[in-house]
């Protein structure tokens, strides 16, 4: 029992705001304890309390007991915890070296390499040699996620807190990562899983604790919970109802954005995107899916002018679009907006979120600052972010909250094409539905944006009119969503369709 | 990273152009000084006839650009020309003055890097703490003291009051043969850069240690020393590397004051004398040397910055 | 057989000279420009080295009279334009005797029209084409005009005798008290005793002349025993260490004239009343105290205090601001504003300008100080500006006049061009008897004192420090005279 | 508590600043000169190398030091900051090259040589000295700015701000500068001291300020020979310069530390 994680009556208030209010939690060795709850309910805060890393101005009461020794941690935003000046290999070897100290010197090196490789394989980053020699910024979002996971796996601690470890991962990899977490627990480690991904939670967890606004509203084994949720919130949360069957839809209009023969590369590396052709029509919703690391983000960044190392052409309304944002005028900047995969890294940590969101309208549409704030507040509220929240700095917002703020920031430009990079990965099902509904409503409205949804979420993909599938930098399949999902040609598409079907079954 | 080499190559080429610009700039400035080598040689006996004769003997009556062209042509054959004041080859003159300066510079840098970085890391260990404040204040104090004051103080105490060290290197032809004479100059040279480097490292370290990835590294059970030196330090070093390059440059070219105080006959002394004597070939030779050193050092510092901030491809 | 030269210089303290030892003397240097070519020597370090290696035919005593050195004696003809110089028996370091041919070669080298050797102007009176050797050790110098003060020419700064045919100085051979061992420009030179020296072998075994440009470096080296002799220390250093016992301070009096030059041919100084007013403005004590830190004596607007022919009888001028104002008023120069050129060419220079500005302000004269470049200063003030700081090392009064105060003088910084004055000078040079010359000197000096362009406010001491064990350093030898920086008479106790 | 952390810096920098500001009013008329480097005779800090009253020189000598140092540092940073930021933020190689290479040329000329030459060509007044000190400081400062800004400039936030159409200034100053503020402030402090030092060293080499100028930095050098006769002429101005530079640096530190730990 001494190995158990035990939290009793934990109360945390930060800046006069009660974030956690009497949380009780027990995580036993060898078991996966999942913490679920809407975005902003306090999952990450609880996780950080287990690590003993609450902000210095937090007022804490209650009891947190964690077995001695370090606690493994997979943070929600992997990018921020990866040292930008150290290669992936160095980051992992640093940890592995601690584990082999009792081996004779001569064998340490080999042992370290072996451990690193094993951890990478377990974290589903099999292409070790190329990954190890890269700097964190040279990895895709999902790859960074897995790198951090590999770090946690290497640690060999008795407790692992994994905060959204499967965001940014495609269905195939997600399943395998979940398998690894289960294996971890089987080694006698207490795994605390904080996640929105109910499929993973249901498959993995031995015990589920449901948080809501900082309180534990109920807990129990998953099957029991799914069968008989007691709290109405839980019911809503667990209800895996599909977002909406495609919602209202405008007739696809003329082609707005077109990429032709796009071949993108990074300095000194082979192309990560080869000869891609893509069209986005007005009012259309296009899902861009593919394995983690297949080049989705790169494609979106090329379109939005953040990555200009490419060959081929990108046109807006038939006119060539300058490859770099620096050369785009206000109108064209506004026309193509991009929502970053890592929301936290995309906000200035010093300024209130609201100010940052409102600036879009000021800069790109010439709105007066006062008016821009009003618009921003309204849009943020529609995304479920109240004013008190967004007046704070990004550090005081949860991952999901920031994701929504980032979306609002882009939307405020009234873009013609909105490129959304995994914007629902950090959201619980109700919030996700809400956000997607917001998006589809806006898209369907007059002058609404065409949506390009980069996603691993079958739900979100289902929302699309068309699906384009990327694999290894090439668009391998493209067509109407129904057709692609009904008769998938590519193995990846097939896996996606299966996953969709399975969640569909889950809904019952 | 394969593009690293062409980058260096391009930088070296622009470096050559830069060096040429340095030479021309220095030449133009020296030429703009009142008087010329003939006037300087004549000194307090400025007999016009004598000045005219010297001028003719030194070919100073020819236009500057002609002399520059001739110098440049000589340069292509590896000939730096002859000193106007002494009639000796410039190359030999510089070769004579270089070893003392190089000795001082190498010694100083060898001590400077560990000392400066160590000081910065130590102060950043608990930014805002007592140790930090003490170190910072002391460093600032020392940094604000010009060499000639520090030199006077150290000499008074260490060489005259407690006669531990020789106060000057007067008459010592080979500094390495009498290492004791190097102690005071190196101490004085070291004092300011250690402080400035230490402060820059401290600032960078304090930021780096507070960054989430440092917290995560600690969380991953890495020993504090490893977090500090392997993780935080590289991120704190980019400005420090720039500063170091400047310091080395300064050590090689600008230690006029220390050379004067301790009677070390190095490049700084040659420089001051050459300017005073309007000895253009020597000044040009020095400018060439300084230009090349600066190019190489800046390149080095940029390469370090490039490596330390890999995300910043713009550095290339 | 050298009756005229002092057998041994007056020592700074008594005792029996001791043979042996190795003396290190520190001088300010000139870096790579330093040379062993004695005809090029310009710096004090050069001069000290040249003096160790070479001799001149004559050299200056402390009152600036020429004392025979390599010359045993000299005799003029009645017209004073043909001088026969007889050499003493002396030999160069390589054993060759010093002969008339060496003398003529050396002088011809110095006056080479294509070169610009230092003593060239001083040798100008000599017609070297016509001069010849009349014996192995006699030279007959033909002069272009009568020159009563011809011995001064023989003692001129830089008129050293090198062996016939010498044109390279990497292994210099001279007839001086020390032999060459090694030399690195800007760093050090080493010499050993010349046992065969005609004036008696030096006491020292070896002599090092080392270079330290910075005064504090020379002082510190001296204090720590790294050197035994430090040339050119500052007055404040002297005061600080005079009584400390760690070093001996030697003050060489009357070494450097300090003053201002007024251009006598341009307004406002073309009016003698303005020049007189300026003479009266100067508070000389204050200038000596402030600019020379007290290390010197006041001047009386005449060059050469303490030297032969100096007009001691002329009463000392003192500050008199009322008269100065009256004179200015009479000259119509009330509210006068002039620019004073100065430059940090020597210690005390800029300070003197500042002090004088303040003094002038009290007489209603506004002085604007313009600080010029120190490397070209002497050339710059020669012909431009109206008022400038000035200083001069020791030389005979005759040399001062001929170089600076005749219509044809090359460095006439006061633009003093008077036919009557030139005539007096010619007359003096043609006068054989000393008393007659003395009277002519006095007339010239009286004229300069009343209306000349040199405002000489002081004479600075030249300060040398030695370690207490150094003996035999001359105390009354202004810089550049025979006994200054003379190491053959020095010994270590 | 939070006020107290400013105290040492404020005290150290305050005294020299006050003397510099009020000094010229308090100085009064120059009395008669005494012998250089003596004490007593109504000179309570003795006399300096030219026999002037040290206390009066101290009162007069702060203004030029303080104005030159502050103005030169401010000027240097006013130029270096935009230059360094532009170089760090641009992706256009040619622009970066045109911005940085000319500075590198200046950088390659040792600053003392540059001062030695320029000051000899044209003896600078106070404004000239300020310009000169700023000139030799700019390349170095610009490089430091660029080096410390490069990392921040490559963060995703900057990209996000760009897609938002944020102006260059807001990105550069509002974000990048803010992220590197600590390093920049440390550098700024060092530069201020560097300028003070530069003025003093230029005096040592005989250029820049007039050798008999009433200027703390010049006083330190010129009164050096009398250190053992009359130390105050060196010690007092040296301490004032020291206080100024240490004090301003401490103030910088204190301000930054506060920002970092909001309570
Ligand atoms: N700066 C870089 N240098 C080299 N390779 C890079 C760089 N950035 C990304 N890559 C590589 O390019 C490939 C495509 O990356 P991209 O970010 O587009 O993937 P993605 O499809 O968005 O993946 P994910 O779903 O994990 O976010 C990846 O294999 C990644 O490792
Ligand atoms: N430093 C802070 N100051 C004030 N409030 C904070 C702070 N950090 C977090 N919060 C608030 O506490 C609540 C819980 O945050 P937490 O990050 O734990 O949520 P979460 O459950 O992890 O949400 P998500 O699923 O969106 O990541 C959020 O509403 C957030 O705004
Ligand atoms: Mg969270
Ligand atoms: Mg991605």
From TrEMBL, chain A:
This is ABC transporter ATP-binding protein. One of its GO terms (molecular function) is ATP binding. Gene3D superfamilies: P-loop containing nucleotide triphosphate hydrolases (3.40.50.300). Belongs to the ABC transporter superfamily. Keywords: ATP-binding, Nucleotide-binding, Transport. Residues 5-238, 257-497 form the ABC transporter domain.
From TrEMBL, chain B:
Signal peptide: none annotated. PROSITE patterns: ABC_TM1. It is found in: Cell membrane. Residues 98-301 form the ABC transmembrane type-1 domain. SUPFAM superfamilies: MetI-like. It is a multi-pass membrane protein. The chain crosses the membrane at residues 102-122, 134-164, 176-195, 250-276, 282-301. The keyword Transport applies. Keywords: Cell membrane, Membrane, Transmembrane, Transmembrane helix, Transport. Its main location: membrane. InterPro entries: BPD_transp_1_N, MetI-like, MetI-like_sf. It comes from the Bacteria. Belongs to the binding-protein-dependent transport system permease family. This is ABC transporter permease.
From TrEMBL, chain D:
It is found in: Cell membrane. Keywords: Cell membrane, Membrane, Transmembrane, Transmembrane helix, Transport. It is a multi-pass membrane protein. Its main location: membrane. The keyword Membrane applies. Residues 62-252 form the ABC transmembrane type-1 domain. CDD domains: TM_PBP2. InterPro entries: BP-dependent_transpt_permease (IPR050366), MetI-like (IPR000515), MetI-like_sf (IPR035906). Pfam families: BPD_transp_1. The chain crosses the membrane at residues 65-90, 188-209, 229-252. Belongs to the binding-protein-dependent transport system permease family. This is ABC transporter permease. It comes from Streptomyces gamaensis.
